[in-house]
Design brief:
- This protein has 451 residues and is an all-alpha fold.
- The chain has 25 helices and no strands.
- It has helices at residues 3-6, 9-22, 27-30, 37-44, 52-62, 66-71, 75-93, 97-108, 116-132, 136-147, 157-172, 176-192, 199-215, 218-235, 238-254, 258-272, 278-294, 300-317, 320-336, 340-353, 360-375, 379-393, 400-415, 419-432, 441-450.
């Protein structure tokens, strides 16, 4: 029953009658000089709408609140529900996503105890918990409903968080175009409100930068980062500024500006180090470690220390994909340190974490396993792993991520002297970035001869 139905004269009258009967009272017992017994009868039958003054008088005699007679909500039950909601939201902030999801589900299973604002908060929390648990397909329908909910005012904090989550979810399932469409629409809505650039712009923009990067649109990502950095510096808190520098670092990385990328990401980590969002801090450590491994002067020992620290946190608050990315970076760190057995163990751990479904990260882990086999002289095992990785990668749509993996596969084939396979992988990498093959004049001549 929704709130409009609950407040209808029939339901108000029914609640008054039920309470009266439960207390063993007659209609005359509720009557007064201002309210006749016959009027009580009309109210109970739903033929009259009691005024606020009448409801207050009746509530006092029935031992409840006027709001309970009006809506059916029990004040004590509502307060208890709000307390449970606060605990669920606290569990979500602390990374106990499973417990939070269960609590939100229990609350939403009893809609009669929820007023509109409480129900809205519970649904937002439920969607957030599902996303953090990597149950993206379950989160998306809830988020789609929420962005259309008239109670979620455009420009509000909750609306912004829901829009960002929806954009991020579509990005994580590989629908980059829709992710960008949602992000740009959200940013345009914020701009249309006529406000100065706010922290909401920073939150939306940070997600949008990530989607641009995954599409390989480095120019838009760079321009948006340049727009947000001054705003974050002037208005943002440490966490807001950290998020912008984090994404600016990713842009610099995509532009192959490694020193700038490392400096920006280090700055982001310094700003967010004391944040209570442990997952964000762990992911930043992962990014810094990865950049240390890609540097002209790699620092694998420092990278390994950062990754081991991040891995412990992500084991508690991260999802399987984030944990797998950390494991893959640990593979690279151990390879650079010459610790091949440890590297193999981390690669297999990454594959185990990614066993629930096809992921580009699983291809990366398998390519690294192939490299380790080849380093040990286990040629057959290495080539078999490389062929498996190649077959798996063909099933993924073109993207910046797949281009990187094709390039990696090509490099491994090249080091093995397999020019044909290397050229094919490099060609796939170029196609994944959107660069088509050049026109073949010989093909046109062959067509002319056939006519």
């Amino acid at each position: 029953m929704d709130q409009v139905e609950a407040a209808s004269p029939v339901h108000v009258g029914r609640r008054i009658r039920n309470l009266r009967v439960k207390l063993g009272l007659k209609q005359q017992d509720l009557a007064s000089t201002e309210i006749s017994a016959s009027y009580i009868s009309l109210i109970e039958s739903g033929k009259r709408v009691p005024s606020d003054t009448v409801l207050t008088t009746l509530a006092r005699k029935l031992g409840c609140s006027p709001d309970h007679l009006r809506t059916g909500h029990d004040e004590h039950a509502l307060e208890d529900t709000k307390l449970k909601l606060s605990f669920a939201e606290m569990a979500l902030r602390n990374g106990d996503n499973g417990a939070a999801l269960q609590s939100f589900g229990e609350l939403l299973a009893k809609p009669a105890l929820l007023d509109r604002p409480t129900r809205l908060r519970a649904r937002v929390g439920q969607a957030t918990a599902l996303e953090k648990l990597d149950r993206i397909e379950a989160a998306i329908p809830i988020l789609e409903e929420l962005v259309k909910d008239p109670d979620l005012a455009a420009g509000s904090d909750a609306w912004c968080r829901v829009s960002v989550s929806l954009s991020r979810c579509y990005r994580n399932v590989g629908d980059i175009a829709l992710s960008i469409e949602i992000g740009e629409r959200t940013m345009a809505t914020l701009d249309a409100l006529g406000l100065d650039v706010t922290m909401d712009h920073i939150q939306v923009g940070s997600t949008l930068i990530g989607s641009y990067l995954m599409r390989g649109d480095l120019t838009r990502a760079h321009l948006l980062a340049q727009r947000l950095i001054p705003v974050a510096e002037e208005h943002g808190g440490r966490v807001g500024r950290g998020a912008v520098y984090w994404n600016a670092g990713l842009v610099a990385l995509s532009r192959r500006q490694f020193p700038e990328a490392l400096a920006l990401t280090e700055r982001a980590l310094a700003m967010m180090a004391d944040d209570d969002n442990l997952r964000h801090v762990a992911m930043l450590k992962l990014n810094v470690a990865w950049l240390e491994l890609q540097s002209d002067t790699p620092a694998p020992a420092r990278a390994r220390a950062l990754l081991e620290d991040a891995g412990q946190t992500l084991a508690e608050v991260g999802n399987a994909i984030e944990q797998a990315r950390c494991e893959i970076c640990l593979v690279d760190a151990h390879i650079q340190l010459g610790q091949w057995d440890d590297a193999s163990a981390h690669a297999r751990r990454a594959l185990g974490l990614l066993s629930s479904g096809p992921r580009v990260e699983a291809v990366g882990a398998r390519v690294r396993l192939a490299e380790l086999h080849l380093l040990r002289g286990e040629r057959n095992d290495g080539l078999q792993s490389l062929h498996t990785a190649t077959r798996q990668l063909r099933h993924f749509p073109p993207s910046y991520e797949t281009a990187q993996e094709w390039r990696h596969i090509g490099d491994v084939w090249k080091r093995q002297g397999r020019s044909k396979e290397a050229l094919e992988a490099y060609d796939q990498a170029l196609q994944a970035t959107g660069m088509p093959a050049t026109y073949d004049p010989a093909h046109a001549l062959a067509e002319q001869h056939q006519r």
